[in-house]
Design a protein that fits this description.
The chain has 382 residues and is an alpha/beta fold. The protein has a single domain (5-378), classed as Alpha-Beta Barrel (TIM Barrel), CATH 3.20.20.210. It has helices at 5-8, 36-39, 43-63, 106-111, 116-121, 142-150, 164-167, 181-201, 216-219, 225-239, 268-273, 294-304, 325-336, 357-378, and strands at 14-15, 93-101, 127-136, 158-162, 171-172, 206-210, 245-250, 281-284, 309-315, 344-348. The strands form 2 sheets. The protein has a 7-stranded parallel beta sheet with strand order 1-10-9-8-7-6-4. Strand 8 (281-284), helix 12 and strand 9 form a beta-alpha-beta unit. Helix 6 (142-150) packs parallel to helix 8 (181-201). The longest helix is centred in the C-terminal third of the chain and has 22 residues, at 357-378. The protein is globular and about 60 Å long. It starts with a helix and ends with a helix.
Length: 382
Amino acid sequence: MVGKLKDVVGVPIASTQAGAYMRPFWYNLNFEGRDMTQVLLNNTSKTMYEDALKLVFHEQALAGLDIFTDGCLRYDEWLSGLGWMTHIAGRLGGIRWNNEFDELTEAERRAMQASEFLVESNLQFRKSADIMSKLSQGNIQMAEFFKFAKRFTNRPLRFTTPEACMTIRVLKNKIGVYRDDTEVFFELCKIINSELKKLVDAGCKIIQLDYAFNPAFYMGERAPDEMWKRQIEGFNIEVHGVNAQIWVHLDWGRPQGQLMAGKVLSFQELFKRIPDAKIDVVGMEAASTYGDNLEKELPIWKEYCSEMDICIGGVNHRRTQVETPEEVANIIKKALKYVPAEKLAVYNDCGMPHLPRAVAYGKIKAIVEGCKLARKELGIKS
């Protein structure tokens, strides 16, 4: 690991953005599992991808973020943002998309008490893929995507990606290539580990794994001990020997701005379960409750996971109202009761590709200004 927030960013209460950002209306490029170097041989595709990346970086620079992301423009624009969840699955070697729409598993249904609208309008169209032979890295190409994007910014660039807990949800081992789903899961963890090491070799110093520990995270206390144990073991395989700052991002859902569990839950159980996970920074939703849940969640973090740094949501991705800097600063103050400033970063609760451009930009600007206000109150120069 390359160090804590203070070592990599150099500023307390660092500002950043969760991952997926507003996609320009004219940007309609989908890689669809293809070799990205082949896709970008097409001049129109290459120009479109370059220009979209430049726009995302430009807006992050205008806002003044301390840590950038590429806006996740490499994900396909599937209904309700599901393209991010299928990103790795669709690029693996050894799979074939089937013509079936995937049903929610029983564990997922227990974990997600989602609205009828969300299930009927979105999740019923979730595609799945059959495992046809032993899985391989195929066209995952994390390093290639990172190197292409890094040419357009000299700011710290955090690479965000789904990981094995998400990817396995759309893979079906129908013909028995693997003994069971557990074997598939650990195979995925090893493949992702290899990709992350290539990413580091390409110069990436900050890596974020999205929605680790699912569905145990959503199930909380209802999740069996064995489920938590397996997912933490898999996570540690994914990041083993990866010399980068490792983030995880977790929240209560983004599709169509809906709460996947039907309500805001709590991070308390997560913090009790993950002390042995090799994590540098835990990213957590907080703005949905205006920071009020931090009062009961961060004491548990302090008790079990204080070696890990924290990134909190300062703006909410489900509200189109742009928060004021003062509102963001108030959430930060609640976190500072438990988290030292040098161990704290701030971003949005989850991705914002579904929001209008002016709203998305306004929210990242509010994050930056809110962090400045909090630093000023602490007597820290921005």
